Structure formats: structure tokens, C-alpha cells
Amino acid sequence: MSQTYLVIVTEAPEAKVALRFAALRAQKTDRGVEILAIGERQDFAAWGGVQAAMEEEERLRVEAMIAASVQEIIDATGIKPTITVKQGEAVKVIAAEINEREDVAALVLGAAPGSNPGPIVKHFTGEGAGDLPCPVLLVPGGLTDERLEELS
């Protein structure tokens, strides 16, 4: 079973840095990269058809968000990441994804510069850190491409 780096991709700029780090690291360690993008669940249950359309629109928005980043990673490293799009509360979705699998070598998160690294980072490096079956790789969002290359 091939080990993968699970990268959480959001619209935040630090997510792109984390994805680049994971791809560079995967290239050097002969591992794969999986992108997990999480869309918000649409709570509009009164009209099921409307809710389904809203959820489909959210899925398409998330896929479009990551498309450009994926192509950059392929061009730079030759690594073709797999992409998973799920909906729900981010922390719960991430924990479930990791706990259901044995191939995750590490959870890779991008941390925003400043005093608020983001809610996902806060959770998985704080109260939820000890519950994971894999390490968390925390990538500072302000790293340059040159520094990422050195560190990976």
C-alpha cells in the first residue's frame, strides 16, 4: 500500500504553500499526495432539490478552486495528486478521513502567518493532536518556494 500525504486545501494562500511542500516531499520520498477539499454542507432541507443544487454548486466551486494549484504541482514535481471533495464540518470530515484509512503518512496543513493560524490548524495541533493515527506536518504559509525546496 502506497503512503500518501493528505493535504487540506482551502481558499487560503497558506493551503497552496502546504500543497507545494507535500508534493516536493512526496517526490523525494516516493509517496503520493491526496488533496482533501471540504465544502460547507448546505442546510436548506425544506426543498431537497434546491439543497442538492446548492451542494453541487459548492462542489464545483471547490473543484475550480484547486484546479490551478493541481496543475502547478504536476508541472513542478510530476506528482499527480488525487482529489477528494467532501462536504461537512471540516474538523470532523478530516478526522473521519484519516481514521478510516491506513495509507495516510501525514496530515499536511498550511498555517496562516500571525496570531491566528486557522481553525483546522488550531484543532489538529491543539486539542485534537493526540487523537490522530499519523503525524501532522505544519507548513508556515509565508515560506518561499526556495525555502520549501530546502525543507522538503
Structure description:
It is built from 5 helices and 5 strands, in the order E-H-E-H-E-H-E-H-E-H. By secondary structure, the protein is an alpha/beta fold. Strands 3-2-1-4-5 form a 5-stranded parallel beta sheet, with helices on both faces. Strand 4 (104-111), helix 4 and strand 5 form a beta-alpha-beta unit.
Could you state the order of secondary-structure elements as H and E?
A: EHEHEHEHEH
Number of helices: 5
- Widest β-sheet, arrangement of strands: 3-2-1-4-5
User: Low-confidence runs (pLDDT<50, min 5 residues)?
Assistant: none
- Termini separation comes to 22 Å
Count of β-strands: 5
What is the CA-atom radius of gyration, in angstroms? 16 Å
Index terms:
single chain, 152 residues, alpha/beta, 5-stranded parallel sheet, 5 helices, 22% strand, globular
Please outline the helices and strands.
Elements: E1 4-9, H1 13-29, E2 32-39, H2 48-77, E3 82-87, H3 90-99, E4 104-111, H4 119-124, E5 136-140, H5 145-151
Parallel strand pairs: 1-2, 1-4, 2-3, 4-5
What's this entry about, in short?
By secondary structure, the protein is α/β, with parallel strands linked by helices. The protein is 46% helix and 22% strand.
